[in-house]
């Protein structure tokens, strides 16, 4: 593998690094809000991976004008718009559950909640 291939596809590496940061945040922090933030970072890395897969250097919007041009693949972008809506919905649901958990247990720390439950 040449170094130029790695530098040309840096967004793939960046999405992997973002995913690892998100999973590290989810697994190592006992605070529920930080776990949701980690989940959002992981979702963002997947969005970046898909959108960068459809990107073409010098590509234009896929509007056919009759001339031969390089077009950007619109399918990943459309899929990611749906993914963003689902991600926002999941985040809203998780935050509402966290509010209920805080009202019941008085803490957002998963270790303390586990001890309270026995």
TrEMBL record:
Bilayer topology: Multi-pass membrane protein
Domain of life, source organism: Bacteria
Subcellular location field: Membrane
Residue ranges crossing the lipid bilayer per the database entry: 6-27, 39-58, 78-99
Major subcellular location class: membrane
Keywords noted in UniProt: Membrane, Transmembrane, Transmembrane helix
Assigned protein family: Belongs to the CPA3 antiporters (TC 2.A.63) subunit C family.
Protein name: Cation:proton antiporter
